[in-house]
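name: query_chain
kind: protein
chains: 1
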Amino acid sequence: MPRYRFADFTLSPRRRTLVRSGRELPLIPRYFDLLVFLVEHRHEAVERRHIFEHVWSEVIVCDSALSQAVRTLRRTLEDDSREPRFIRTVARHGYQFIYPEVLVDEENGGPTADATAGAAAGPPRADASVDAFEPLLRRLTAKAASEVEEEDQREAAELLHAHGTAEALRRLRTREGHVRARALLRDTRWDVPNAGAVPIVGQPNAAGVAAALVAVRLRRAARAAAARWLGAAIGAGVAGAAAGIIGGVLLSLAPGSTAPLHGAGVLGVIGACVGALAGAGVGAGLTFGEATARSNRVAAVVVSGALGGGAAGLIAQWLGRWTLDTLVGIRVDVGGGVEGLVIGALSGLGYALTTRRAEGGLAAPRGSRLVQVVAATGGACAAGGVALALAGRPLVGGTIHAIALASAGSHALLTPLGRLLGEPDFGPVTRTVIAAGEAGLFGVGLALGLTRSPKSHDSLTRR
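structure:
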């Protein structure tokens, strides 16, 4: 692998180190990858889209994440955005590495002389006569009136981490504006190598800091989160329509069935409506958990998915009972809340476990990883459908059968489907198979709706 030397820096992709004058400079992995990518493509101005596809290939992030990464690289290289020596901003296009003299040699796999010297040199010592904290704390606690000022505050938080997280928190204490300042310090600690912990629990106004942190992260992910929520609803709605149509066709073809073939269209519409509502609830929960949690991400996504699914299920349950009672005078024990809670939690579990590598953004897996995410989410939901059926809590198919039993002359009885599975009636095996099938299809549609192709990823990151 090549090694790059420019000015007094040595950049080693193989060893994943950036060394300056014998001292190794820490960078988080994505920022290191960005620097390598810009140096490798130094003969051209690289489009933002290409940067996102390469550095954030399987994660959807807000557009300001790239600006923040470039800002950190400039600070590490001691570069000036107004008179750049290394990284130039190309308006409405992207960035270019412009240092003219880049020497390239082969990396032999052993430690370089610079790296060896860096181990002995250690980090630079700050000038004790200069108070680096107070000006940054004033910037951090001031009220931001624009997006530019908000980014300036994020930079102040990053610099405070670089100088010392513990000392910054000690000086911050409860001065005016400390709530949002703590939230920004907590959020930016992931982007500064060797940053210290920023606890929330047990600190002043913990609830306010947590709320401010959620607001900061949701605001940065707002566009992507809204599109993912819509995609989840559409994907689950399509899956629900498919489940209804497949079930309707099988029902009309089953031996002894009187159900007409056009009934498949009606069941498809019902499945689409229920699936879209459930997908909107679960998708909102999963997106919320993913956008707001950096630590304990799996638990946050599972809990948020359960709450979103439970809320959507309660709405469907109330609408179903009210509609049947008001329009046709039928009172059927329509479920929804518990079912939504279970399916939401299990879909969150399958999705979160297979997207654990998505750090700092919303997961956008591709290729084989996308297949894994879809399979895991669908399989987890199918397992939930089986558990609910065994517990006597039917999903859409079982509910339609119960409504048909209470309605004289209905053609929607699913008893003929039981004969296809070797049961004389709509028995436990039939209930379980139908529940597993519709829940599994829901999980597949939900996962496909939440994920994005590279083109969608690019459109979401642009402002």
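note: The beta strands are 2-6, 9-12, 17-20, 23-24, 46-47, 59-60, 87-90, 94-97, 102-106, 362-363.
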